[in-house]
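ok new one. same drill as before - structure tokens go in, u give me an amino acid for every spot. 229 of them this time. try not to just spam alanines like last time pls lmao
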């Protein structure tokens, strides 16, 4: 993978690019965790199997939702702004359609993980390879176009703010606190107010699934400075 881009803009501020890149960080972080966990024997560890099954459901839902948001919102907007991006957007959309069947295979393998650990590991490794190319292309070609967007749409309700906070809590793990402070500067107040509880809940979840919950050191879209065991 080429060098991952910085989460913050060159002037040290956060932008919508920061939010998108933090999602990329989370996808890379957790696919590596799945690969490590599945490479070890799970037979007889019912609690670990159940935890990984549940975490796969969350991961695939987050990844699929991320792609749907791009296909239906971000990419059409960018296509309208820049005809030069059309070829890249077509390639990224095609990647999404390649990834969807792989997620379905993952659903089948993880639903019977105790008996299909090798299948689940094969899916995870293949998905990691696809994501590596896909995210790198998106970061090289799309991210520069959204660095100037520095307003996150305010959630309409408190429940919506809490939902967004859960997503950001997932993306925050492993990211340097200095980056997160600048992210908070950009996010709406009602969303930020939910983040401490959401992050604490996610740390507990991370401990249950991976055996580790951390505050990290990453300043780029690549995981850095924390364990992925």
């Amino acid at each position: 993978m080429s060098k991952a881009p910085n989460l913050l803009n060159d002037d040290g501020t956060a932008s919508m690019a920061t939010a998108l890149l933090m999602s990329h960080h989370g996808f890379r972080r957790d696919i590596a965790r799945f690969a490590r966990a599945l490479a070890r024997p799970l037979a007889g560890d019912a609690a670990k199997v159940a935890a990984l099954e549940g975490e796969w459901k969350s991961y695939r839902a987050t990844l699929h939702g991320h792609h749907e948001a791009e296909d239906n919102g971000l990419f059409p907007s960018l296509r309208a702004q820049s005809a030069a991006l059309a070829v890249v957007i077509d390639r990224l959309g095609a990647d999404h359609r390649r990834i969807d069947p792989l997620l379905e295979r993952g659903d089948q393998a993880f639903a019977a993980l105790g008996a299909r650990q090798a299948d689940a590991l094969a899916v995870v490794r293949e998905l990691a390879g696809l994501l590596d190319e896909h995210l790198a292309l998106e970061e090289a070609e799309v991210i520069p176009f959204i660095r100037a967007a520095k307003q996150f749409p305010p959630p309409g309700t408190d429940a919506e703010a809490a939902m967004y906070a859960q997503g950001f809590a997932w993306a925050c793990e492993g990211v340097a606190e200095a980056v997160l402070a600048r992210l908070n500067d950009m996010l709406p107040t009602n969303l930020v107010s939910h983040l401490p509880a959401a992050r604490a809940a996610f740390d507990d979840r991370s401990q249950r699934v991976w055996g580790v919950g951390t505050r990290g050191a990453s300043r780029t879209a690549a995981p850095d400075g924390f364990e992925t065991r």
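The chain has a mean pLDDT of 94. and btw The chain is about 70% helix and 0% strand.
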